[in-house]
């Protein structure tokens, strides 16, 4: 008996998942209908219905005479103010924020890290690398550094709560703010492209920041790379922000 093929809903969901994961890159042209039928095991009428549904959802666009293309996702507008918080930024746009720790270690401060934290070069610092997600799509990754003398058991305390605000409070830091932000662009490394699901040769936005306590003493220096085609930054230094208990601030 001849196979009936996958339903249009199954085909729609498979193509949608490949768009979300980045395997089908923004602005890329889809193969021909016969090729798509083979790739997704679908009959032509089911494929056409699935594609029409994805066009209606804004995930695909049809350019007459050229073909069907993956629509470029709307840019995440990341607001940088005096109290920038990763989760709050994403939640305000209806996105789910999450993150993962890639590695943790105590190292000697480089001259750049020492200068940012106001400590001596080669002083011990706690270094943590992480990756941040919006709706399970990776958008950023980087390193954060804390003075090990001021935060001697930071690693252990972080294991008890994922919320950096709560960790700071356990050290008596009731509030903190963004002291300085530096943003520039460069080409993604091969490792960064793989971790952020970017195309080879794509650019990333690099964000260096210093957070400080209410006495203006630096408490954290971090450097993050962001997927340049998924985010834009808006600087609002005087923006009022409601303090909430939330995940680690990534930028």
Automatic annotation (TrEMBL):
SMART domains, A to Z: HTH_GNTR (SM00345), UTRA (SM00866)
Domain HTH gntR-type residues, every copy: 5-73
Record-given protein name: Phosphonate metabolism transcriptional regulator PhnF
Gene3D superfamilies for the chain: Chorismate lyase-like, Winged helix-like DNA-binding domain superfamily/Winged helix DNA-binding domain
Keywords of this entry: DNA-binding, Transcription, Transcription regulation
GO terms for biological process, alphabetical: negative regulation of DNA-templated transcription
The keyword DNA-binding is assigned to this record: yes
Gene Ontology MF term list: DNA binding; DNA-binding transcription factor activity
InterPro entries: Bact_HTH_transcr_reg, Chorismate_lyase_/UTRA_dom_sf, CP_lyase_PhnF, Tscrpt_reg_HTH_GntR, UTRA, WH-like_DNA-bd_sf, WH_DNA-bd_sf
NCBIfam families: C_P_lyase_phnF (TIGR02325)
């Amino acid at each position: 008996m001849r196979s009936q093929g996958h339903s249009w809903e199954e085909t729609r969901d498979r193509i949608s998942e490949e768009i979300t994961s980045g395997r089908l890159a923004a602005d890329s042209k889809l193969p021909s209908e016969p090729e798509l039928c083979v790739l997704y095991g679908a009959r032509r009428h089911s494929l056409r219905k699935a594609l029409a549904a994805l066009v209606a959802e804004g995930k695909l666009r049809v350019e007459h005479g050229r073909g069907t293309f993956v629509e470029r996702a709307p840019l995440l507008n990341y607001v940088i103010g005096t109290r920038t918080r990763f989760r709050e930024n994403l939640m305000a746009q209806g996105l789910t924020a999450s993150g993962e720790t890639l590695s943790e270690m105590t190292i000697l401060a480089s001259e750049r890290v020492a200068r940012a934290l106001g400590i001596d070069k080669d002083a011990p610092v706690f270094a943590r690398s992480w990756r941040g997600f919006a709706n399970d799509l990776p958008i950023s990754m980087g390193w954060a550094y804390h003075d090990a003398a001021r935060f001697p058991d930071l690693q252990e305390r972080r294991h008890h709560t994922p919320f950096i605000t709560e960790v700071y409070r356990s050290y008596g830091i009731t509030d903190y703010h963004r002291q300085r932000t530096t943003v520039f662009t460069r080409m993604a490394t091969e490792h960064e492209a793989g971790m952020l699901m970017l195309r080879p040769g794509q650019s990333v936005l690099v964000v260096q920041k210093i957070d400080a306590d209410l006495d203006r003493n630096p408490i954290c220096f971090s450097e993050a790379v962001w997927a340049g085609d998924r985010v834009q930054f808006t600087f609002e230094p005087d923006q009022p922000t409601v303090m909430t208990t939330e995940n680690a601030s990534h930028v």
